[in-house]
Specification:
This protein has 255 residues and is an alpha/beta fold. Helices cover 35% and strands 14% of the residues.
Length: 255
């Protein structure tokens, strides 16, 4: 396969494709009967300590594609700053052999989760599942690659191979920064942003682009199109949530 080279403009298109897919995937709630993807969880369940005081995240990856340790620590810190989970946030790792596909549909991904997910909500512990895959998303186009999709109330997929194809090189963001950006943006959709389960305290939804923030400097903006956002990412500084998004999370039980 011919190796794809990327310049700054193409990386912006990649980030745009992430946010566009976020909107479509948050509306896709179908799950197979008895599938772990059918685990019921609301944004408030993740944000507050009312029903669940601990979060366990299962990070499952295809052999050879484990996310960077620094990225996972950054993601844990991000969640600790936003979630009321007095008994902590725990990450458990598991690895699987490659399913043997170069392209994955959402149905393919649901089936992988159904076979391999081991964490389930129990007692006061709520869970989430993040799958790091070795192929591309079936809805990719010739000039736009999807890096992540949230496909259920507690589940998401990161197309790790695609991320690695477009990070870590000269003039590209670091692998860790790209992993953090994609994963945190996805997680925030699971946490109900924007107007996706966590109601808005003040109007700030970019309705033209779905469940995203209208602040171009926010992590939840639909497209990373400005030099400021791109330069921050290239400097390994992932955009933060703006105050409106933080206020929404606080109002729904977060902090």
């Amino acid at each position: 396969m011919k190796k794809i080279l990327i310049n700054t403009g193409l990386f912006i298109l990649l980030l745009i494709s992430i946010t566009v897919l976020f909107f479509s995937c948050t509306k896709d709630k179908k799950t197979a009967p008895n599938s772990p993807a059918s685990i019921s969880a609301s944004a408030k369940d993740y944000l507050s300590s009312t029903d669940y005081d601990k979060l366990v995240i299962q990070i499952q990856y295809v052999n050879g594609l484990q996310p960077t340790a620094g990225a996972v620590e950054d993601i844990k810190t991000f969640l600790s700053n936003r979630l009321n989970k007095p008994n902590g946030i725990e990450v458990v790792y598991s690895n699987i052999n490659s399913p043997g596909r170069s392209v994955y549909t959402i149905e393919d991904i649901r089936n992988i989760e159904a076979i391999n997910r081991t964490v389930k909500n129990e007692g006061k512990t709520i869970t989430s599942y993040i799958l790091f895959l070795d192929g591309e998303y079936s809805q990719n186009t010739s000039n736009s690659k999807t890096l992540g999709v949230a496909f259920g109330s507690s589940s998401m997929v990161i197309f790790e191979k695609t991320i690695r194809d477009f990070s870590g090189g000269l003039g590209q963001p670091s692998l860790g920064a790209a992993e953090v950006l994609v994963t945190e943006h996805e997680l925030c959709h699971i946490l109900g942003l924007v107007n996706n389960g966590s109601n808005m305290v003040a109007a700030h939804q970019d309705e033209t682009h779905g469940k995203h923030c209208n602040n171009s400097n926010c992590l939840m903006y639909y497209e990373a199109e400005t030099s400021n956002i791109l330069n921050n990412l290239l400097g390994n500084n992932v955009p933060s949530l703006d105050q409106n998004c933080i206020n929404d999370l606080k109002a729904n039980g977060g902090k």
